[in-house]
Design brief:
A hairpin with a 2-residue loop joins strand 5 and strand 6. By secondary structure, the protein is of the alpha+beta class. The model has no long low-confidence stretch (mean pLDDT about 95). It is globular. It has one domain. A 6-stranded mixed β-sheet has the order 4-1-3-2-5-6, with no helix packed on it. It is built from 2 helices and 6 strands; from the N terminus they run H-E-E-E-E-H-E-E.
């Protein structure tokens, strides 16, 4: 399974807008997602380098980020269209990028601190 053409086009457009080469995750890879927070806004995402079957993305809702071990749950990228479709356009941003989505407001920016070893925090 791959992303539908409309999602791939939106991902490409986000990457072009930010001047980066698209690096979409494979649908079989896992992201870390805070399922219990997805009703909160804004939606936030950050991408570390991929490792051990993960694509490096961590996604949560709300302004509070938690470092507790159970804050994020693993989810295959292929299931995001059902769980959190609002984040799909940003998933091709390469490691080191963050995004924020809040209704009609969207922002994405590069954060080099995400590329450091073992840094899985917001």
């Amino acid at each position: 399974m791959d992303f539908p053409p409309d999602v791939r086009e939106r991902q490409r457009a986000v990457c072009v807008r930010h001047g980066v080469t698209a690096s979409p995750p494979h649908p079989s890879e896992k992201i870390g997602i805070a399922l219990g927070t997805l009703s909160l806004r804004p939606l936030n995402g950050l991408r570390h380098p991929p490792e051990a079957g993960t694509c490096g993305w961590y996604v949560w809702g709300g302004e509070q980020f938690s470092t507790t071990d159970d804050f994020f749950q693993p989810l295959h990228v292929a299931h995001l269209h059902q769980t959190c479709p609002e984040v799909l356009p940003f998933l091709a941003l390469p490691p080191g990028w963050r995004f924020l989505v809040d209704g009609g407001y969207e922002d994405a920016w590069y954060d080099e601190t995400l590329l450091g070893p073992g840094n899985h925090s917001g």
